[in-house]
């Protein structure tokens, strides 16, 4: 799980229905950070190998263009966020400032229950105007908020979809379970990026489990979770997430054995490391873990 330093970007330089993938073409967004947590740019199709299960697939589509994204922001406004609210609002706006002009956004806040404060818009100021109504109070229905965000993405304009979650605790007030939500995000073609604000002291078991919850929900989608201890770092991390979204490779393949079995098909991306100037010895690949095929 990346920490603030693991953003690589300077100090940072660098009820929803299951989504079934059309198995004629499976698209996989990929982000790579080196061992110094910097984005690895300038790669080509031949720098990757792609496997479905144990079978290598031919990469038939490759792009690294900054295509528009449908973005959902899911902001914790539970009572424990009271002293972090101003920094969190600033982080949301810094994240939106890095957006493509064609991007669209929506805003969901959550405490005792999730609430959609802003519908899809291409105007960051529409989000900003709603943040003034986000008063911290109540408990933390994080899983319900993620469920709402995934459901909202059914109405997204673009194929590229992502959620940014900002929270300072684990879930303690949701109807949906962690297992249900993890299953849902595996079925949805939505990348999830979490920003967890955690102190070294956890006042409850839910808070203790918070970092692992965000990590599990995000990494299966090809996103990741950043952990920080100081709310003053929120804006830098939000900018880092924006840069990761803007520097993705998109790989596409047609499965050699295209089964319409309704089952989960694992995907693995291998970066064929070559000699790249200033590249450190280690790196990390972020890509979706798989997809559900349609059923006959």
In short:
It contains six helices and 14 strands. It has 296 residues and is of the alpha/beta class. The protein has a six-stranded mixed sheet with strand order 7-6-5-8-9-10, with helices on both faces. The chain has a four-stranded antiparallel sheet with strand order 4-11-1-13, with no helix packed on it. Strands 3-2-12-14 form a four-stranded antiparallel sheet, with no helix packed on it.
Draw up the topology in text:
Elements: E1 26-34, E2 48-52, E3 55-57, E4 59-63, E5 70-76, H1 85-97, E6 104-110, E7 114-121, H2 124-131, H3 142-152, E8 161-167, H4 178-187, E9 191-197, H5 205-219, E10 225-228, H6 234-246, E11 249-253, E12 264-271, E13 283-287, E14 290-292
Parallel strand pairs: 5-6, 5-8, 8-9, 9-10
Antiparallel strand pairs: 1-11, 1-13, 2-3, 2-12, 4-11, 6-7, 12-14
Helix pairs in contact: 1-2, 1-6, 3-4, 4-5
Task: Give the key terms.
alpha/beta, Rossmann fold, four-stranded antiparallel beta sheet, globular, disordered N terminus
Characterise the protein shown here.
This protein is an alpha/beta fold and 296 residues long. The chain has one domain: 3-Layer(aba) Sandwich (Rossmann fold), CATH 3.40.50. 24% of the residues lie in helices and 28% in strands. The chain contains six helices and 14 strands. A six-stranded mixed sheet has the order 7-6-5-8-9-10, sandwiched between helices. Helix 3 packs parallel to helix 4 and helix 4 packs parallel to helix 5. The N terminus is likely disordered.
